[in-house]
Amino acid sequence: MTAHELLEKIAFNVIQGRVEAEDEGFDEGLEGQPGVTELVNDALAQGLEPKEIVLKGLTTSMEAVGEKFERNEYLIPDMLASAECVGVAMDILSPHLMKAGVEGKGKFVIATVAGDLHDIGKNIVAIMLKGAGYQVIDLGTDISVERITAAVKENQAPFLGLSALLTTTMRVMEEVIQQLKEEGIRDRVKVLIGGAPTSIEFAQEIGADAYCKDAFQAINLLKTTVT
Amino acid sequence: MIELFRPGIVVKPYERLNAEQLTWLDQASLSILEDPGIWCYNERAATLLKEHGARVWEEDGSGAPCWRVSFQSGLIKEAVAQAPSRFVLGARIPENRLLIDAEIPRVYFGTGSEANIWLDAEMEDFVSKTNSDVEVKVPRYTEQRGSTALLSRAAHLCDKLEHLDFFIRPLNIQDPEITSDNHDVNKFFASLNNITKHVQAGLTSLSSLGDVIKMAQIIAGGQEALRDNPVVSFIACIFKSPLQIVDDTAAKVFAIVEAGLPLVISSSPQGGSSAHIQEAGMVAQINAEILAGIALTQMIRPGAPVLYGSVPVRARLDDLHDLYGCPEFNQYNIDCVQLARYYNIPCYSTAGVGDAKVPGMQALYEKLFTHLYMAMSGAQYIHYAFGLLDRTNTFCPVQAVLDNEQIGHIKHCLQAPKVDREEIEDTLKTVKKVMASSHRLFARFARKAMHRGDISAPYRFETKKLEDRVIENALIYMQQLEAQPADHLNPEIQEKILKEIPGILPSLAQPSTAG
Lengths: 227, 515
Known about the structure:
With 227 residues, chain A is an alpha/beta fold. Chain A is built from nine helices and five strands, in the order ααααβαβαβαβαβα. Chain A has helices spanning 3-16, 36-45, 50-70, 76-99, 120-131, 145-155, 171-182, 200-206, 215-226, and strands at 107-113, 135-143, 159-163, 190-194, 210-211.
């Protein structure tokens, strides 16, 4: 397979949402054919530039997936499948990119705040962000104020995402922002919040930088307003 | 029997009656048919029943020639056993045929009644009296008398409703040019020229039967082709409850059965007036009436395809009108479905009727109550299910669109469980994969089921804000469906029908087909 064909295949499989060979795609009959994992490894083995793999195999195809979603051709599971493909590919490519001195879109610390175990929304956002090229540091659920601020500090992360599903835990977000201020790093990190009980008004009230209704809004916000 | 037919939905039947109760009802019906027996106002039927061994004598004082008929139980059982358990109801295109099988609870839904009123809906803007910034859209309704043009429109719309399996003319045609002589040919032509699904109706005039059959033969491709693919069938409510065979309907039954076309033997006693209101009494009586009607069809022509047509209703006790959307309606009807299954005869049943006069919460309540329950019963052929309001007096197209959505979800809900070895293996594999992944999300693995159509869509007419725009959304969807071209009969076939069959309004001819 030529380099061009290989990149096309990677892009095709991202659109199909096939992480590995045994996965089904959006279209029928693809099981058994190499998925993104196998193809990216092949590409590296053939000596393709990691940056080229990202640009020609992953980025453009993920944009195509976004367009399909906009046109209602794809639903959330399709988007997530494609984002997972990109995420897996980035895991493989990251060490090579770092070695080549290529910078990603930045570190994004994400967590569900203390007292709250809900993580579906947070996970979807994490997968989509990873698929969009961010280096996601997912702290998990029920994370204390101290751990969140420490992670932002240690990683020098320019972005922080906070999630809560409960009206009783959403106030913890305010405590995180307060702690960031107290530690003098509030102006170095953009804080995005989300979760069913939150709103634009709540984000403004607690001093967050943005409220995100869903993962797509988070990515769009990062692309435009926040950055 | 046939390979291509509408899938319907095969359900695991929900049953109310145990085996002993079924036997009691069967015996009660046979006992009624023996004593007091039935009152038959049709001489030919009385004669035929007598020839087959029923005890028949003239009944005095009925105001019209009448014969009392007493059946020995063996006679009814022997005749009913000759009715086929399986047959085809045809359609203009093979994939729209219906495979009706008493042994398979494959449920089909369709329209029904012959309503006088067509109810149009349109959205109108209203401004709040207290705050002129607040505007709302509210549906406003207008009534029209049924006509051939509106029946054509109903057939076109119903052809596009994916969950509607058959078409019983839902509207009475009342154009000035329509008389009792040309009523049948026009209602059948208006229907058949706009829908590719099975068409069924009652016969207004016996003298029109020949013309209707001729029309059906032209469409099906000849006499034999019509036998194989009966694109039309008929409904005959031969009994006037309680227990009286009607003269002119009996004559129609003879003619239809002799012509070899499928027929519904329907009875519709009203619990509280023309039958007991109690379940046992109602069901024993309607079952007796239907069994006697079916027995007659088999004496006319053994093996005649016939549906067990049960439409038991309850009376409102405030005005003695029919009360459809009530618990007793479901109880009566599901018992009848079980009895039809007991006799191995396909069941024509009823759902989707209520007292509501316009689409809305009441209509939704009444319809869902019976749509779901009767689908669960496993009746093969459920009529009245689309568009009816004000009991059976109004046909409302946007209501038919709302019913289509409801029935679609009911069909989905009652699908057979997909639990087999392959699914289980797939599940175990997926669980391992998800638990080994970073975020433990199953979303990606929803795709296979999603793409093969196993996952239902959200309610089509939902609103996401603090408002209810269901009717507005349904109207928009209805307009989209109606904008799709109708699948008319081939112009040569239309021309032949108009040339050979007198009385059809020329305005019903259509210039082209959808291809």
